[in-house]
Amino acid sequence: MSILFCGDPHGLFEQIIEAVREHQPEAVILLGDMEASRPLHIELAEVLDLTELWWIPGNHDSDEERFTAHLFDGPLADRNLHGRVETIAGLRVAGLGGVFRGKVW
Predict the structure, then answer these.
(1) Beta-carbon neighbour count of residue 87 at 10 Å?
(2) Whole-angstrom Cα distance, residue 18 to residue 15?
(3) Of 91, 79, 81, 85, which Cα lies nearest the Cα of 3?
């Protein structure tokens, strides 16, 4: 069992794609600040058949409406670990996102 934890890609997902291909983890957990320019399932389409993908929102994921929409409105929205505990690759994982703003926009 293996989980690849990846933090703060800030819109640059190629290194994550390369790491998944090289290490073949059972799951990937993105640790916030994705700042995805496109929906997350498109950004990481190359590896979705290779690994299970989960994510936790970071403080920069609400900097622009599109960043938030690309996480919360797509087919991977149910993979948001914020405020949840899930069994991933045989381990219990809890998520707590980094956005605690009263008003985002």
Answers:
(1) 8
(2) 5
(3) 91
Q: Which tokens in the block code for residue 64?
A: 């622009």
Closest CA to 38 of 61, 66, 60, 59: 66
Alpha-carbon distance of 70 to 81, in angstroms, equals 16
> In sequence order, which residues have a C-beta less than 8 Å from that of residue 98 and are 6 or more positions away?
32, 33, 56, 57, 58, 59
pTM: 0.90
Question: How many Cα atoms are found within 13 Å in the side-chain-facing hemisphere of 1?
Answer: 6
Residues in contact with 73: Cβ distance below 8 Å, sequence separation at least 6, in sequence order: 39
Specify whether the CB–CB gap between 40 and 74 falls below 8 A: yes
pLDDT in tens, 32-42: 999 999 999 99
Q: In this predicted model, what pLDDT tens digit does every residue of 70-100 receive, in sequence order?
A: 999 999 999 999 999 999 999 999 999 976 6
